[in-house]
Amino acid sequence: MKKSIVLSLPIALRLKFRVKGLSYFLRSQGVNCNINLHYRKSTVAHRWSTAHSIAVGKIAMRSLRELKDGCDLDGNRWFSDEWGVGVPDDAKASDCEAVLGNARALGANDLAYAEEGYEAGDPRRFPNVPDIPVSNHVCGRAIDLNVDWGRLGGPWSKGANELVRQFGLKRPYADEAWHVELDDEKKPGFGVFHLIRWVTKS
User: Fold this and answer.
1) Pick from 198, 196, 195, 144: which is nearest to 21 by CA?
2) Contact, 33 vs 146, CB < 8 A?
3) Looking at residue 4, what is its pLDDT?
4) Which of 11, 37, 92, 108 has its CA 20 to 30 A from that of 188?
5) b/e 137-152 (16+ beta carbons within 10 angstroms → b)
6) Is residue 127 a contact partner of residue 70, using CB atoms and an 8 Å limit?
């Protein structure tokens, strides 16, 4: 009696395999695509997330003044005494133009929302607030895939959505068509078999 062997890969590897399968399939159909980001370093996620929190008023001047030499444990400088002259401790850090300008220089493009690189309670997270989750990019649960979705009727067309799901993937953020994660409720369909055929032929 034969026993079936179940291969259980780590989430990060399963995600990588499925995203590469999707990208191979798209290229075989003449659709331009490239994997933009596999993983994001904890240090980068923390810096982007803290900059965004400052910009949207989540962090008070008091927290920045508590930083040794104005820097977090990663060495990012968020504050300097001369920046905060006359600004009370309970004021939002975003009310201080110099602090806000510095955050813009340290943050992601357009100070976009970014999730953290460190768990709540980790001293490296300070001065960021504790209620922001750790980015799935940091733990290998998300990949950014840039695709010319126009060839499929747009990024959120029925065809694009179905293709993503056929590879056992999902795009959970309506404003980030490039952000893909594993779809736990959907096992890969024809996509994986197409990938095997593609690799065999190449």
Assistant:
1) 195
2) yes
3) 43
4) 37
5) bbebebbbbebebeeb
6) no
